[in-house]
Amino acid sequence: MALKALDIYKLLPKKNCKECGDPTCLTFAMKLAGGKADVDLCPYLDDQAKAVLGATTRPPIRRVRIGVGERSFEIGEEFVLYRHEKTFFHQPGILFEVSDTQSPDEITSITKRVKDESFTRVGTDLMFSGIAVRNRSNATDSFAAAVGIVENVADLPLVLISANTAALSAALVHCGTYRPLIHAATKGNFKEMCALAKQHGCPLVIKAHQLDELAQLAKDCSAEGVQDFVMDLSPASLYEFIASSTGIRQLAITRTAPDLGYPVYLDATAGGMQDAWIALGIVKYASVIVTAPLSRASAKAALTLRQNVYTDPQKPIQMNPGLYRVGTPGKDAPVLMTVNFSLTFFTLEGYLESARIPCFMLIVDTEGLSVLTAVAAGKLNETLVLDAIRRFDVENEVSHKKLIIPGYAAPLSGRIEEATGWKVMVGPRDAAEIGDFLNEEWKR
Ligand code: SF4
User: Fold this and answer.
1) pTM for this model (two decimals)
2) Peptide bond into 184 cis (omega under 30)
3) Angle between helix 47-57 and 25-33 (nearest 10)
4) Residues whose CB is less than 8 angstroms from the CB of residue 275 and which lie 6 or more positions away in sequence, other chains included
5) How far is the CA of 2 from the centre of ligand 1 (A)?
6) Are 154 and 113 in contact (CB under 8 A)?
7) In a mutational test of the pocket of ligand 1, which residue from 10, 11, 19 has the highest number of ligand atoms less than 8 Å from its CB?
8) Ligand 1 contacts CB of residue 42 (under 6 A)
9) Angle 60-21-254 (CA atoms, 0-180°, nearest 5)?
10) Tens place of pLDDT for every residue, the chain, 444 residues?
11) What are the E-state strand segments in 165-210?
12) Less Cβ crowding at N or C end of the chain, within 10 Å?
């Protein structure tokens, strides 16, 4: 059972010395209770307290990094079963599979696609996570060559899939220092696989068909000195996947089975219905999803779903405040003020682009709240608008002093005029009407 903050506090030295980075022992205890701090940060804990706290305060699902550098990604360190209870923290890596039986041109083309393809949605660039190289030939040389081709094209996180330890060993010569995920250790080969993972400092997939076998394998591999695991139950059906991944998440977050406290691996390439496997994997706790290259429509759907599931439901998606241009606005172009809630920004921007009227959008920081909510909560006011006009040097961008505000901000129009000295025009409440409004009302 997880300890509560006050129970943890009783075990701390109570020096309030701040050396752990927290102002008091109590705040450190609260962080430990939430799995947000490491017991080793307090240098004054005795061994007994460390042993008790270490076992109960580490995140229930281990965080594992795959790859190095800019495109590397972290998985695990999740705390809840349902997103609305808190949030999900680390989105699954989705990797396109190539095989060492494919031609070098095919491998290069798929790798280039993962390296470059990007979809922009609500201001975020969405990309796939890496390449999984499968040793379909079971030959050592061709596997190493395929990994070499991928490595020459891009620095992407890799999964190396082979049952042949000699082939894995040859491939790791190309990429062993880049933390590829090695697939997979089983009851029969775990000693050799652990030796490879240890030698190259790589995370390791452990594979078994039952939860108790998986837990035992995690224990055995830990004893070999490897700690970063991802677990593969090789489910035979969608039902089996949901049942096993939900079971693992439940047992891990309640700390009922700490040996199952690792991220989950899903191979979506087998057995058809790939889109369904990917969607279920994203929603039901897969952390590494290997798929055949997707069509553009499926790719967009998968990345959109992942973005939606892994945004914090308690935090609105925000834009950076600033002065944005729509088209190529001149000095006489209208200036439209609105809030930094992403959905508001992109909706308005879309209608402005359709209207083909070059203009400026002045985005004020309302902490991601919509116009209506920001006005009601006092998060949109004349001071913020004045600050934004000054900060983003709007007076030097245009030759007039007219500001169009959203219809829902009409109650603030007088105060904004008074504070800024700009003439305020109240725009429509519905962004869809902004084109007609500008055509009819905008006069310099
Ligand atoms: S380092 Fe230890 S003793 Fe000092 S404030 Fe943090 S928890 Fe307390």
Assistant:
1) 0.77
2) yes
3) 40
4) 294, 298, 301, 302
5) 20
6) no
7) 19
8) yes
9) 15
10) 567 888 899 999 999 999 998 999 999 998 888 777 778 889 999 888 887 787 677 788 999 999 999 999 999 988 888 988 888 999 999 999 999 999 999 999 999 999 999 998 877 899 999 999 999 999 999 999 999 999 999 999 999 999 999 999 999 988 888 999 999 999 999 999 999 999 999 999 999 999 999 999 999 999 999 999 999 999 999 999 999 999 999 999 888 888 899 999 999 997 679 999 999 999 999 999 999 999 999 999 999 999 999 988 877 788 889 999 999 999 999 999 999 998 899 999 999 999 999 999 999 999 989 999 999 999 999 999 999 999 999 999 999 999 999 999 999 999 999 999 999 999 999 999 999 999 998 854
11) 181-185, 204-207
12) N
Closest CA relative to residue 229, chosen from 177, 183, 178:
183
- For 43, counting Cβ atoms within 10 Å of its Cβ (0-12 exposed, 13-18 middle, 19+ buried), the class is exposed
Is any atom of ligand 1 closer than 6 Å to the C-beta of 44? yes
- Return the amino acid letter for 349: E
Substitution candidate for ligand 1 out of 11, 12, 32 with most atoms within 8 A of CB: 12
Angle (nearest 5°) at CA 246 between 241 and 251: 130
Dump the DSSP string for 408-421.
GGGGGHHHHHHHH-
Cα–Cα distance measured from residue 137 to residue 131, given in angstroms and rounded to the nearest whole number: 17
> Are 394 and 323 a contacting pair, CB within 8 Å?
yes
- List C-alpha distances in Å: 373 to 365, 419, 434: 13, 22, 20
CB-based contact 281:241 (threshold 8 Å): yes
Query: Quick check: CB of 39 below 6 Å from ligand 1?
Result: no
- The domains located in the chain, with CATH, are 5-57 (1.10.15.40), 64-309 (3.20.20.20), 322-441 (3.40.50.11600)
241 three-state secondary structure: helix
